[in-house]
Give the backbone structure.
Amino acid sequence: MPLPEPDLVRVNLWIERLNAEMPAHVLSQLRYETEVYRNAVTLVECRLVDLDQPGGDWFRIPFARLRFTRSRGWELYCADGNSEFHVYDLVPPADDVDVLLAEISEDPTCIVFG
């Protein structure tokens, strides 16, 4: 099932804002991206493997997943230390993806950004 295109645009804009708010000296070492697969958008933190090699390899750490179904709408999942995803049950599924993006931004439990 294809994901709603307007929602994908909003998720990507949210990621762009996250990157834009980052201090300039950090941008060469850290960035955020999305990975879309089937009915889910995974939010990923990308870090430079070797800080002494700015053009080097990056490793990717998934930290949240937004999953869409027609019956439930968008659901939020958070990754644990082993990159396994678990339902984030402090906010119910929502038809509006912005509700879940706001919860990630707020991160009231510090489970997303630490």
User: Anything to note?
Assistant: Helices lie at 5-20, 24-27, 97-106.
